[in-house]
Protein backbone atom coordinates (compact mmCIF):
# COMPACT_ATOMS: atom_id res chain seq x y z
CA UNK A 1 0.00 0.00 0.00
CA UNK A 2 2.82 2.38 0.79
CA UNK A 3 3.87 2.49 -2.87
CA UNK A 4 0.37 2.92 -4.29
CA UNK A 5 0.45 6.70 -4.74
CA UNK A 6 3.85 6.85 -6.50
CA UNK A 7 2.85 3.86 -8.63
CA UNK A 8 -0.45 5.45 -9.66
CA UNK A 9 1.22 8.77 -10.42
CA UNK A 10 3.87 6.97 -12.45
CA UNK A 11 1.20 5.16 -14.42
CA UNK A 12 -0.66 8.42 -15.08
CA UNK A 13 2.46 10.04 -16.49
CA UNK A 14 3.40 7.09 -18.68
CA UNK A 15 -0.06 6.53 -20.12
CA UNK A 16 -0.45 9.91 -21.73
CA UNK A 17 -2.61 11.52 -19.08
CA UNK A 18 0.36 13.68 -18.18
CA UNK A 19 -0.55 16.08 -20.96
CA UNK A 20 -3.87 16.72 -19.21
CA UNK A 21 -4.10 18.42 -15.85
CA UNK A 22 -3.78 15.96 -12.98
CA UNK A 23 -5.91 16.92 -10.03
CA UNK A 24 -5.62 14.88 -6.85
CA UNK A 25 -7.50 15.06 -3.59
CA UNK A 26 -7.66 12.98 -0.47
CA UNK A 27 -10.13 12.34 2.30
CA UNK A 28 -9.81 10.90 5.81
CA UNK A 29 -12.83 8.58 5.93
CA UNK A 30 -12.22 7.58 9.56
CA UNK A 31 -12.31 11.21 10.68
CA UNK A 32 -15.35 11.87 8.51
CA UNK A 33 -17.13 8.85 9.99
CA UNK A 34 -16.49 10.14 13.52
CA UNK A 35 -17.65 13.67 12.68
CA UNK A 36 -20.82 13.18 10.62
CA UNK A 37 -24.04 13.03 12.63
CA UNK A 38 -24.90 9.48 11.50
CA UNK A 39 -21.40 8.35 12.48
CA UNK A 40 -21.77 9.85 15.95
CA UNK A 41 -25.10 8.04 16.38
CA UNK A 42 -23.58 4.76 15.18
CA UNK A 43 -20.67 5.16 17.59
CA UNK A 44 -23.08 5.81 20.46
CA UNK A 45 -25.13 2.71 19.56
CA UNK A 46 -21.98 0.60 19.47
CA UNK A 47 -20.78 1.97 22.80
CA UNK A 48 -24.16 1.18 24.39
CA UNK A 49 -24.09 -2.32 22.96
CA UNK A 50 -20.50 -2.82 24.11
CA UNK A 51 -21.25 -1.55 27.63
CA UNK A 52 -24.24 -3.86 28.00
CA UNK A 53 -22.28 -6.86 26.83
CA UNK A 54 -19.28 -5.94 28.96
CA UNK A 55 -21.45 -5.94 32.08
CA UNK A 56 -22.56 -9.49 31.31
CA UNK A 57 -18.96 -10.56 30.73
CA UNK A 58 -17.83 -8.91 33.95
CA UNK A 59 -20.54 -10.72 35.92
CA UNK A 60 -19.49 -14.05 34.40
CA UNK A 61 -15.82 -13.31 35.13
CA UNK A 62 -16.61 -12.46 38.75
CA UNK A 63 -18.61 -15.66 39.12
CA UNK A 64 -15.73 -17.65 37.67
CA UNK A 65 -13.21 -15.89 39.93
CA UNK A 66 -15.34 -16.69 42.99
CA UNK A 67 -15.62 -20.30 41.85
CA UNK A 68 -11.84 -20.51 41.49
CA UNK A 69 -11.23 -19.02 44.96
CA UNK A 70 -13.72 -21.42 46.51
CA UNK A 71 -12.14 -24.37 44.73
CA UNK A 72 -8.64 -23.36 45.85
CA UNK A 73 -9.77 -22.86 49.45
CA UNK A 74 -11.64 -26.16 49.69
CA UNK A 75 -9.55 -28.50 47.53
CA UNK A 76 -7.40 -29.67 50.46
CA UNK A 77 -10.53 -31.02 52.13
CA UNK A 78 -12.16 -32.55 49.04
CA UNK A 79 -12.09 -36.12 47.91
CA UNK A 80 -10.31 -36.68 44.60
CA UNK A 81 -13.47 -37.43 42.60
CA UNK A 82 -15.23 -34.30 43.95
CA UNK A 83 -12.14 -32.19 43.31
CA UNK A 84 -11.90 -33.51 39.74
CA UNK A 85 -15.60 -32.79 39.16
CA UNK A 86 -15.25 -29.21 40.46
CA UNK A 87 -12.17 -28.64 38.28
CA UNK A 88 -14.11 -29.90 35.23
CA UNK A 89 -17.00 -27.56 36.05
CA UNK A 90 -14.55 -24.68 36.35
CA UNK A 91 -12.87 -25.58 33.04
CA UNK A 92 -16.28 -25.77 31.29
CA UNK A 93 -17.35 -22.39 32.66
CA UNK A 94 -14.03 -20.88 31.61
CA UNK A 95 -14.46 -22.30 28.12
CA UNK A 96 -18.02 -20.96 27.96
CA UNK A 97 -16.81 -17.52 29.01
CA UNK A 98 -14.12 -17.53 26.33
CA UNK A 99 -16.64 -18.61 23.68
CA UNK A 100 -19.05 -15.91 24.82
CA UNK A 101 -16.30 -13.30 24.56
CA UNK A 102 -15.44 -14.37 21.00
CA UNK A 103 -19.12 -14.36 20.00
CA UNK A 104 -19.65 -10.90 21.47
CA UNK A 105 -16.64 -9.57 19.58
CA UNK A 106 -18.06 -11.00 16.35
CA UNK A 107 -21.48 -9.47 17.09
CA UNK A 108 -19.92 -6.05 17.71
CA UNK A 109 -17.89 -6.25 14.50
CA UNK A 110 -20.96 -7.30 12.49
CA UNK A 111 -23.05 -4.50 14.02
CA UNK A 112 -20.32 -1.96 13.30
CA UNK A 113 -20.15 -3.11 9.68
CA UNK A 114 -23.94 -2.90 9.39
CA UNK A 115 -24.11 0.58 10.90
CA UNK A 116 -21.23 2.04 8.88
CA UNK A 117 -21.94 0.48 5.48
CA UNK A 118 -24.71 2.92 4.64
CA UNK A 119 -22.63 5.86 5.83
CA UNK A 120 -19.64 4.84 3.71
CA UNK A 121 -21.87 4.20 0.69
CA UNK A 122 -23.36 7.67 1.01
CA UNK A 123 -19.89 9.20 1.42
CA UNK A 124 -18.86 7.38 -1.75
CA UNK A 125 -21.75 8.98 -3.66
CA UNK A 126 -20.78 12.41 -2.35
CA UNK A 127 -17.13 11.90 -3.29
CA UNK A 128 -18.20 10.71 -6.73
CA UNK A 129 -20.13 13.96 -7.17
CA UNK A 130 -17.20 16.06 -5.89
CA UNK A 131 -14.80 14.20 -8.18
CA UNK A 132 -16.89 14.63 -11.31
CA UNK A 133 -17.99 18.20 -10.59
CA UNK A 134 -14.46 19.42 -9.84
CA UNK A 135 -12.68 17.26 -12.45
CA UNK A 136 -10.50 15.31 -10.04
CA UNK A 137 -8.27 12.71 -11.64
CA UNK A 138 -8.24 10.77 -8.39
CA UNK A 139 -9.45 11.07 -4.79
CA UNK A 140 -7.46 8.96 -2.35
CA UNK A 141 -8.34 7.72 1.11
CA UNK A 142 -5.73 9.13 3.45
CA UNK A 143 -4.96 6.08 5.56
CA UNK A 144 -5.49 3.38 2.93
CA UNK A 145 -3.28 4.96 0.29
CA UNK A 146 -0.50 5.91 2.71
CA UNK A 147 -0.76 9.63 2.14
CA UNK A 148 1.95 10.71 4.53
CA UNK A 149 1.78 14.36 3.62
CA UNK A 150 -0.13 16.49 1.19
CA UNK A 151 -0.98 20.18 1.02
CA UNK A 152 -4.02 21.05 3.10
CA UNK A 153 -5.94 22.38 0.10
CA UNK A 154 -6.10 18.81 -1.30
CA UNK A 155 -7.90 17.54 1.84
CA UNK A 156 -11.58 17.13 1.01
CA UNK A 157 -12.61 15.73 4.41
CA UNK A 158 -14.24 18.92 5.73
CA UNK A 159 -16.18 19.36 2.48
CA UNK A 160 -17.34 15.73 2.68
CA UNK A 161 -18.50 16.14 6.30
CA UNK A 162 -20.29 19.42 5.53
CA UNK A 163 -22.09 17.96 2.50
CA UNK A 164 -23.01 14.76 4.35
CA UNK A 165 -24.50 16.63 7.31
CA UNK A 166 -26.35 18.89 4.88
CA UNK A 167 -28.17 15.82 3.50
CA UNK A 168 -26.31 15.28 0.24
CA UNK A 169 -25.82 11.79 -1.13
CA UNK A 170 -29.07 10.27 0.07
CA UNK A 171 -30.67 7.90 -2.39
In DSSP terms (H or I, runs of 4 or more residues), the helix count works out at 5
**Main sheet: strands, sense, barrel:** 2 strands, parallel
Order of helices and strands: HEHHHEH
Helix share of residues? 55-70%
Which strand-content bin applies to the residues?
A: under 5%
Return Rg in Å. 26 Å
Distance between the termini: 32 Å
Structural class: mainly alpha
Overall number of domains = 1
Overall outline: elongated
* Number of E-type strands: 2
Low-confidence stretches: 1-5
On the 0 to 100 scale, the average pLDDT is: 88
Largest beta sheet: strand ordering = 1-2
Quickly describe the structure.
This protein has helices spanning 4-14, 29-35, 37-74, 80-133, 157-165; strands at residues 24-27, 138-141.
Q: What does this molecule look like?
A:
With 171 residues, this protein is mainly alpha-helical. It has one domain. It has 5 helices and 2 strands, in the order αβαααβα. The protein has helices at 4-14, 29-35, 37-74, 80-133, 157-165, and strands spanning 24-27, 138-141. A two-stranded parallel ribbon has the order 1-2. Helix 3 (37-74) packs antiparallel against helix 4 (80-133). The longest helix has 54 residues, at 80-133. The two termini are 32 Å apart. The relative contact order is 0.20. The model is unreliable at 1-5 (pLDDT under 50).
Give a quick set of tags describing it.
mainly alpha, 171 residues, 2 strands, disordered N terminus, two-stranded parallel ribbon, elongated
